[in-house]
Amino acid sequence: MTPRERVLTALRREIPDRVPWMEGIVGNGIASAVCGEPINVDWSVAPDGFPKQRGAALAEERKKVNRVFGKDNINFSAFAPIFATKMEKATDGSNVLVGDGLMRSEEDFDRLFKLPPPDDSGDKCK
To answer: Where does residue 7 fall: left (phi above 0), alpha (psi -120 to 50 degrees), or beta otherwise?
Structure first.
């Protein structure tokens, strides 16, 4: 089975040839060593809350890793809104970003966090 067939078979609750491997993230160092070429997946987020690496470039890097590791998926990472005044790398060296929070009351929440109306079909991406 191809990775796509394997995942779709599992989603249909049928039995694939093997359990799909859907690992989330393999670090650049490990991926580069196993692939035998530099792998550069940048998970960092710009101060405006959007990823720094374009989606197409991220997907190409991830496809290299998936082929070598035999992974059956490419993750789509939709970043949640970041309600902070500034974004800095965490002091522990992780990719987690921290900043001064903007939500400190229900009024802040009501002002900053807007969900679409319940009857919105969500067709804005078409």
So the answer is: alpha
Better pLDDT: 84 or 40: 40
Amino acid letter, residue 21: W
Do 110 and 116 contact (CB within 8 A), yes or no?
no
Whether residue 49 is predicted with pLDDT greater than 70 in this model: the reply is no
- Is residue 50 a contact partner of residue 60, using CB atoms and an 8 Å limit? no
Cα 2–Cα 74–Cα 45 angle in degrees, nearest 5: 175
Question: DSSP letters of 1-51?
Answer: --HHHHHHHHHTT---SS---------HHHHHHHHTS-------B-TTSSB
Whether the model pTM is above 0.85: no
